[in-house]
Amino acid sequence: MFRQAKWDEPLIFELSREGRIGYTLPKPIEDVDVKIPEKLRRKSRLNLPEISEPEIVKHYTRLSEMNYGVDSGIYPLGSCTMKYNPKINEEIASHPGVAHIHPYQDERTVQGALKIMWELEQWLKEITGMDRFTLQPAAGANGEFTGVSIIRAYHLDNGEPQRDEMLVADSAHGTNPASAAMAGFKVIEIPSTEEGTMDLEALENAVGERTAGLMLTNPNTLGIFEDEIVEIARIVHKAGGLLYYDGANLNAVLGKVRPGDMGFDIVHLNLHKTFSTPHGGGGPGSGPVGVKNFLKDYLPVPLVSYDGERYYLDYNVPKSIGKVKELYGNFAVMVRALTYLKIMGREGLREVSEVAVLNANYLTRKLLGTRGYELPGKELRKHETVFSAEPMKRETGVTAMDVAKRLLDFGMHSPTVYFPLIVHEALMIEPTETVSKEELDAYVEALKKISEEAYSSPEVVKSAPHNTAVRRVDDVLAAKKPVLSWRMYLELKEKGEVDY
Fold first, then answer.
1. Separation of alpha carbons 263 and 253, rounded Å
2. Burial, 455: exposed, middle or buried (Cβ in 10 Å; 0-12, 13-18, 19+)?
3. Which of 29, 88, 311, 372 is spaced 20 to 30 Å from 340 by Cα?
4. Are residues 467 and 480 in the same domain?
5. Residues 138 and 189 sit within 8 Å (Cβ to Cβ)
């Protein structure tokens, strides 16, 4: 469970005592005459806390115990795919040959790095059914913007500037319509049926001469496979549009089916999700974009190519949309991804999806019928499942957010809440393949216990969490008066404006 921390956990500056030493600097070399210009000399002492080494270790160990990550336990954020990161990935990524190279080095001195990027592209092409990849985008949303920018460039190049509408499923990730709008498209929302899949009649009515493309993920964000995907592709292509694959949910289909075989023309992947780089809090990430042959001339520059003897940065991309990130992408994430792929192999990747789907459906079946939770759409799920806590809210006043906060008291990370937007009071759970049956059972039992509390003692749930280092944050106050530094914290604490 989360550590039972004190509310007034001291800051490291509050622990400071004059004269205590935590680190001894080496003696200066006396025979070296170093003259520091007067204007660069410090006029006052550096304001650093004075703490002994044991106190420093204890302090940061306490702080680490207050945190939670993929190494702590289940981290079932729906569509975020927070899976365990094998430590061999970190070992390889920290190798001096990876960690100490520089992007401005001559190509002859980084042949190994370029080979890693080229080999990774070959794996991604095989996994997705695409013909060429750029590894440049830094994250999924960056990949989306790259993909829709390619779609725009393609239509302009073909003399069809009127194609200014991007179709987006109503269950899509919020970055889909945002990326499309940033690229200059008008976003047209396509509704879902009661079963949770795309409404084909609505799609037929929406496509036309202004259609640039359709952005879709499969399985979709409800965790339901779009079983009419071949027909969806036919409808979009017949209208002259392109089909874009949001790769956030690729974990469900590895080794089973490829987006390229479903009819998709463009794919973005999240290496940091599917291929196990620890992420969150803004990074690190990598969102490669793959395309079919007819779109490869629009990819960002440079690509990584191989002529049979050497690997090189290839700027021969005649209709390139340009760069979407400085330099060549987040290289260390690529290294982790290739390490993971080589260890897993073809059969291992197939097993990843099989166990991920098994885990999601096992959790779904165990939670079905629990008071206060209902399952919208088809019962059979892929990698994730979405329950609605709307009955619980209606009958007890306990919301999906309350359930998420109460889960923290059980030492478990909450699922994604309030997404997708088409499910009211959504609880979106993706356990991934790295969670054991025992952890799934414990998670389900916690959700059932919270259901019991909601109907017997709702205030217990509504006032949660109770045993975390910080109680529930006032979302409005946190947005208007964010505490961004220890100085701000001390000032607000002195004024009595913070209670933690």
1. 15
2. middle
3. 311
4. no
5. no
What's the rounded Cα separation, in Å, for the pair 340 and 168?
A: 32
Domain that holds residue 458: 351-473
Largest CA-CA distance found in the chain, in angstroms, rounded: 84
Question: What is the C-alpha to C-alpha distance for residues 113 and 397, in angstroms, rounded to an integer?
Answer: 55
Q: Which of 125, 420, 80, 81 is nearest to 267 (CA)?
A: 125
Asked if residue 74 belongs to a domain, the reply is: no
Query: Do 381 and 479 fall within a single domain?
Result: no
**Helices 400-408 & 437-456, crossing angle to 10 degrees?**
120
Determine, yes or no, domain membership for 319.
Answer: yes
Residues 136 and 251 in one domain: yes
Residue 169 located in a structural domain = yes
The Cα–Cα gap between 465 and 257 comes to 41
> 402-433 as b/e, with b when 16 or more CB fall inside 10 Å?
bbbbbbbbbbbbbbbbebbebbebbbbbbbbb
- Secondary structure tally for the chain: helices H, strands E: 17, 12
Q: Are 224 and 378 in contact (CB under 8 A)?
A: yes
Cis amide bond preceding 76, omega within 30: no
User: What is the C-alpha end-to-end distance of the chain, expressed in Å?
Assistant: 20
Residue type, 326: E
**Same domain as 437, residue 479:** no
**Quick one: 358 and 310 in the same domain?**
no
**How do the pLDDT tens digits run along the chain, 500 residues long?**
444 445 456 788 888 998 898 888 888 777 777 788 989 988 888 888 999 999 999 988 888 877 888 888 999 999 889 999 999 999 999 999 999 999 999 999 999 999 999 999 999 999 999 999 999 999 999 999 999 999 999 999 999 999 999 999 999 988 999 999 999 999 999 999 999 999 999 999 999 999 999 999 999 999 999 999 999 999 999 999 999 999 999 999 999 999 999 999 999 999 999 998 877 666 689 999 999 999 999 999 999 999 999 999 999 999 999 999 999 999 999 999 999 999 999 999 999 999 999 999 999 999 999 999 999 999 999 999 999 999 999 999 999 999 999 999 999 999 999 999 999 999 999 999 999 999 999 999 999 999 999 999 999 999 999 988 778 888 888 788 788 887 787 787 788 776 65
Q: CA–CA separation, 253 vs 350, rounded Å?
A: 8
